[in-house]
Specification:
Radius of gyration of chain B: 13 Å
Helix content of chain B: under 10%
Largest interface: A-B, 23 and 20 residues
Shape of chain B: globular
Oligomer: heterodimer
Strand content of chain A: over 45%
Shape of chain A: globular
Distance between the termini of chain B: 39 Å
Radius of gyration of chain A: 13 Å
Number of strands of chain A: 11
Distance between the termini of chain A: 37 Å
Chain lengths: ~110, ~120
């Protein structure tokens, strides 16, 4: 199975700041990576697909990038509504696997 | 618009079989694939399996021996059956539409507790 190592497990940042969340794939996944945001008691919502494509309706302050097997989600100009959990997910090989998640707190 | 909604029992006894239904609207199961994904309380997401638009299935090898996914296209429903439930199967269970390589529509989820 492809392991997705996500970091950090949690982070706290202030309004207006920029944060980055990373996922390291255990093998090449050829940009087959998505990012999701999940708020308490809700289902995950797709933010980014194919590593850097922004899902319709997602604010442009969210962006994705890649370098080799390392994938990053950057959130610029943090807003209060950005608080929640973030997960990466690879879709290159079955079983599809997720990162362990990052809890983002807005100070 | 596309909607998915899970339903099923909230409580299942250990060693029993879990049966869940995902009712979809706004999309056809003959041209869309649907996955089941679960999330234990306070933990991460685990992909369980998928039923493809052609009716074929793929399962997570970790639970393949206990899992079955099927559908009724006339009712726009996808079914999950998992046997030999244990306490570690306690989780929120989601169904989601599988796009090309990602999940773009999710149900609200149904909480299943395995307990006697």
């Amino acid at each position: 199975d492809i392991q997705m190592t996500q970091s950090p497990a949690s982070l706290s940042a202030s309004l207006g700041e920029t944060v980055s969340i990373e996922c390291l794939a255990s093998e090449d996944i050829y940009s087959n990576l998505a990012w999701y945001q999940q708020k308490p008691g809700k289902s995950p919502q797709l933010l980014i697909y194919y590593a850097s494509s922004l899902q319709d309706g997602v604010p442009s302050r969210f962006s994705g990038s890649e370098s080799g097997t390392q994938y990053s989600l950057e959130i610029n100009s943090l807003q209060p509504e950005d608080e929640g959990d973030y997960f990466c997910q690879q879709s290159y090989k079955f079983p599809l696997t997720f990162g362990s998640g990052t809890k983002l707190e807005i100070k | 618009q596309v909607q998915l909604k899970e339903s099923g029992p909230g409580l299942v006894q250990p060693s029993q079989t879990l049966s869940l239904t995902c009712t979809v609207s706004g999309l056809s199961l003959t041209s869309n694939s649907v996955s089941w994904i679960r999330q234990p309380p306070g933990k991460g997401l685990e992909w369980m399996g998928v039923i493809w638009s052609n009716g074929g299935t793929d399962y997570n090898s970790a639970i393949k021996s206990r899992l079955s996914i099927s559908r009724d296209t006339s009712k726009s429903q996808v079914f999950l059956k998992m046997n030999s439930l244990q306490t570690e199967d306690t989780a929120m269970y989601f169904c989601a539409r599988k796009g090309e390589a990602y999940f773009d529509y999710w149900g609200q989820g149904v909480m299943v507790t395995v307990s006697s």
